[in-house]
Amino acid sequence: MKTVITGILVATVLASILSSPALGEESESITITMTGVSEISISLDKTQWQIGEVATDMEHTTNPAIEWCTLEVIGNSAVKTFIVGEDARWYEDGVGKNYYWTLSDDGTNGENVYGLLFRISGDTARGYVPITKTEGEFWPYSDHPPLEARQYKQFGLKLLTPTYFVGNREMQTQITISAVAA
Questions:
Q1: 18: part of which helix (H) or strand (E)?
Q2: In terms of pTM, does the model score above 0.70?
Q3: Is residue 162 within 8 Å of residue 100, measured between CB atoms?
């Protein structure tokens, strides 16, 4: 009997020692809150248009005319896109020289003035739109919805060479398409 009482007493002491931290334990939880950032990002599948030699007062279009380049929203935010151009500059051996063709402000051409236009595939309302030195709407325009993540627009370019220019000069220009959160 003494052995049974001693065994019960040892078992009770062991149980109370092992369970005492659980009896006095307190717990708290941590709430983790996070907000994913809006990533504004676009990509173009073409970044150069090599036309080659051009004559005065000529029209050149990309091929295909209005599905030449694809702009895709690769970020996770809906965007509005804008386009802006610049004067064309003479480059010789990679060095910019002091001779320019002025970018037209209405898409027409003239003496040492060139026209540059874009057209978005499926956009039958606007047709070709002038690219100017003032940033303008690329997409959306008017009441059209912005481009959502993974959406894209295809477009083409049209160049109207000046009615007069000095020949044998490699002219380069650049257009920039930018995006902002919609």
A1: helix 2-24
A2: yes
A3: no
